Amino acid sequence: MNPNLSRLQSYPFEKLRALFEGLTAPAGLKPIRLSIGEPQHPTPPFIRQALADNLDGLSTYPTTQGTEALRGAIAGWLMRRYKLPAVDAATHVLPVNGSREALFAFAQCVVDGSRPGAKVISPNPFYQIYEGAALLAGAEPVFLNNTAAADHFGPNFDSLPESVWRDVQLVYVCSPGNPTGRVLGLDEWRDLFERSDRHGFVIAADECYSEIYFDEAAPPLGALEAAHRLGRGDFRNLVSFSSLSKRSNVPGMRSGFVAGDAAVLKAFLSYRTYHGCAMSPAVQAASVAAWSDEAHVQENRRLYREKFDRIEPLLAPWLGIQRPDAGFYFWACTPLPDTEFARRLQAEYNVTVLPGSFLAREAHGINPGADYVRIALVAEPGECLEAAERIAAFCQKL
């Protein structure tokens, strides 16, 4: 067996189950789960219909590269969304079965684990796929703490010495961030691009929350957009990862894409051809429909905006929360240790939130997720409001 399998940590939700062992929640309160970032808004009917209308495609093997129609729809969306003058659908875009599997597989393709000291940088707190991908690619994860003190949860690239940067082969970036909702600015992208040029590493930009934001006139800056604005129209050493799961409320379709550096994607396509992970033709057809429509995405954002508008005033006095730049999480500072807060909230009010320490690792002397909880506003507005009222009552009682 791969010896690095033994280095994988339990997933946060396994830790949560262990934390709640032996608890009996109040029978008179229905359970409300705000712990997992699983969209629960209804899937738009036209996407469901497109999927049903293309079931004949199940009789054929799909190609790993996907159909021209899907790559074209994605390229068109990228140009509209990020104001890019040109995206070559044949070389700059590759469909994937959701961003999660692609983020993991990408490290297996990019990292040369035979090189001594190979390193992969990840934000901290982080999406645990980054760590597992690095370990199983034979590299050492290096964590870049994102704290409130460090420019409001932004990355401090200078906090890592040049001796570390020299061995870095891959950098995972999550913007908007999970769990903080922080969006990287143009100067931060410039800094990271310059380091990539200097040390030769590849950047994997996880942007699965990019379409959940609050001002229709000010969408979050994207990685490819930043590259274009900084004169890097070839997207060298940069690949962006996106998904329909959050944008279009179709997590079960497992549909996303990677886009960016044509040379890197050519190698990744070769890897994926052997990996055997082509997208179902029916899912491809439904994805074309989804990427080609913005009305349902605007309605989705309206629902999230309504929830944040109503819930922020309820929780801010108790948890010091601020609206994130984007995404559907509150990253809330707790008056108790985060695990005790989550356990007692579950036991007394039947509301599930995720301890922040489960989303981070101790690095540079601290666990930057400690004493925070992640609150995912994914349920219907009424259910989220009820949960917020229970959380506020719990905090008031402390």
Automatic annotation (TrEMBL):
InterPro entries: Aminotransferase_I/II_large, DapC_beta/gammaproteobac, LL-DAP_aminotransferase, PyrdxlP-dep_Trfase, PyrdxlP-dep_Trfase_major, PyrdxlP-dep_Trfase_small. Residues 32-391 form the Aminotransferase class I/classII large domain. It comes from the Bacteria. GO terms for molecular function: pyridoxal phosphate binding; succinyldiaminopimelate transaminase activity. Its cofactor is pyridoxal 5'-phosphate. Keywords: Aminotransferase, Transferase. The keyword Transmembrane does not apply. Coiled coil: none annotated. The keyword Cell inner membrane does not apply. Its EC number is 2.6.1.17. One of its GO terms (biological process) is lysine biosynthetic process via diaminopimelate. This is Succinyldiaminopimelate transaminase. It comes from Pseudothauera rhizosphaerae. The lineage of its organism: Bacteria, Pseudomonadati, Pseudomonadota, Betaproteobacteria, Rhodocyclales.
